[in-house]
Design goal:
- The chain is an alpha/beta fold and 373 residues long.
- It is 26% helix and 28% strand.
- The strands form three sheets. The chain has a seven-stranded mixed sheet with strand order 4-3-2-5-1-6-7, sandwiched between helices. Strands 8, 9, 14, 15, 16, 17 and 18 form a seven-stranded mixed sheet that branches. Strands 10-11-12-13 form a four-stranded mixed sheet, with helices on one face.
- β12, α8 and β13 form a beta-alpha-beta unit.
- α1 packs across α2.
- The longest helix is centred in the middle third of the chain and has 17 residues.
- 46% of the residues are buried.
Length: 373
């Protein structure tokens, strides 16, 4: 296994006398990218995966391959805005992933995978499939820096199973990725490549990463406008909200009395009740309503919907772009969404995220998994 003790003399990945000051351990990965296939990159936060992805994309493009990069690092996205998996086509050799324009996006809704593992895997699969269908010969998949613990093992294993990569390319300093590689030690595929970190890899503080996300969101929302669809014009995904039957006024009053707060809207679901409330609820009242409605009672605070990040979905479920759900008019059953999508009326649905952000990209909070039913 390669370690930091390995010499880091610069190598010339393109064979044109252009030293990029990268470790010699990267040479097999460069050859794999030139040969073609799907390369799934693994490594910790600030390990230099994005730099590696750009170097591999450059090498493959210089070798004449049709190359796509799938950016599945939802927290520090380089292709498209955060909270998405982006697809970029390499038309000319890039210096960095930021040089690639997003050809397609798939909205995940979070900047950190815990609580949305299925969404992260599904979005990565969608973009890799789009790359393959678009004729990509080399597909390079960048991933998040989540590598420690059972959540990381579950996420990376699911990506290996669904993306079916030809290569696992692990960038590490002291063997920190080995527990993710262990299951593949005796398999014929994917092949495993171990790479040393580049000296170009620079650590970012939590504050720097948050500031980078803020700038990326602000850039994505620049020049936006308010779109005000009715609920039936934009069916909602990732929540039970709007999928049930609105309860009548007298039942709403009963719910208010039980919950001890104003109930702005409520609907009956096959498995119970969803209530959107103006403030905190009485836990005892929630338990009482469970008996009345014969199932689960989900009490959502209206503030959890304010400035909620959403994805606008096209006719085929593709992500057209992002929006900020600013307000909901429960009486008129209408939404107010700020978005830079040029023709938001083309949207045929909304996917709710878990992050709350302002128009300028400032993060305002998170909803717990399942908080919106």
């Amino acid at each position: 296994m390669e370690t930091l003790a390995e010499a880091e003399d610069g190598i010339d990945p393109m064979g044109q006398g252009q030293s990029l000051d990268i470790p010699r351990s990267w040479a097999p990965a460069l050859e794999a990218a030139r040969a073609g296939g799907v390369l799934l990159l693994l490594g910790a936060v600030d390990s230099g995966k994005s730099t590696l992805a750009a170097v591999l994309a450059r090498a493959a493009r210089e070798a004449g391959r049709r190359v796509a990069v799938v950016d599945a690092d939802v927290g520090q996205s380089s292709i498209g805005p955060p909270a998405c998996v982006g697809l970029g086509w390499v038309e000319s050799p890039p210096e960095a992933l930021e040089d690639l324009a997003p050809a397609a996006l798939d909205f995940v809704g979070v900047s950190s995978p815990p609580g949305r593992l299925l969404d992260c895997v599904a979005s990565a699969h969608s973009m890799v499939r789009a790359a393959r269908e678009g004729g990509a010969e080399t597909v390079i998949v960048d991933t998040t820096g989540l590598i420690a613990g059972p959540i990381a093992r579950a996420l990376k294993a699911a990506k290996v199973r669904t993306l079916d990569p030809d290569w696992l390319v692990a960038v590490q300093a002291e063997g920190e990725v080995e527990h993710l590689l262990a299951p593949y030690a005796r398999r014929s595929r994917p092949a495993v490549l171990r790479l040393a970190r580049s000296r170009r890899a620079k650590p970012r503080s939590r504050e720097e990463r948050a500031a980078r996300r803020q700038r990326a969101f602000a850039h994505h929302f620049a020049g936006g406008k308010v779109w005000a669809p009715r609920w039936d014009e934009a069916p909602i995904e990732n929540s039970a909200w709007t999928s049930g039957e609105a309860i009548p006024g007298h039942v709403l009053s009963y719910c208010e009395e039980a919950l001890g707060c104003e109930v702005l809207y409520a609907e009956r679901l096959p498995d119970g009740l969803l209530a959107i409330c103006a403030g905190p609820t009485d836990p005892g009242g929630v338990r009482a309503l469970r008996e009345s409605f014969g199932g689960a009672v989900r009490a959502v605070q209206a503030r959890d919907l304010s400035n909620l990040l959403v994805g606008l979905l096209g006719p085929g479920g593709e992500t057209l772009g992002l929006g900020v759900l600013e307000t909901a008019d429960f009486r008129a059953r209408a939404l107010s969404i700020y978005t830079a999508v040029s023709e938001p009326e083309r949207a045929r649905g909304l996917r709710l995220g878990a992050m709350r952000v302002a128009r300028d990209g400032t993060e305002q909070g998170w909803n717990e998994p399942g908080a919106l039913g």
